[in-house]
Amino acid sequence: MWRGVLPAVLATGLGLAALGPAVPCARAQQPDATGILMTWTEVGFDPHSKSYKQYEGYVNWHLPWDWKGLRGWAGHTAFQATGGGMWVNRVRGNLVSAGPLASIEGAGGLLSIHAGFRPTLISRIRFRDLNLGTRLQFTSHIGILIRPLPHLAVGWRLQHMSNGGLDTHNPGVNLSTFEVRAEW
Phi and psi dihedrals of 13, rounded to 5? Predict the structure, then answer.
């Protein structure tokens, strides 16, 4: 399963990382986080997603709505763009997505809670017995991350992906997943 996957994810991540400096506008903001996100579950709480894996390269651009709270807690906002692959019931599809992300960080950045919403385009709608209805999906998530090292985060995420009623066939995929992030 890993053959061909890691090079594709790395190429996507590097391509997204190169996107920031490649923007021709002189005042374009550089990305403040770039990395690779891997989420997986072998037992989702959704019967449609008995086996789910997602590997994405991502880029976050800082948005101006931040706040500082009590006892070292702070809130941050970002715009996130992703690209990569997903495997549902051992069938592969590609995906790209973009949308807002918000996080609350504490304990000197070692702990964060994050949530996001991204319209998502997928390369296929059928994954064996699962038919997602349309190529346009909407992905929302909430999760918690722990950063044991400066460029490594591990955590847990609740994620929902569906077509938002754009098609009469809209089973959606609900996941409770483990995630690993490598950031630079």
Answer: -60, -45
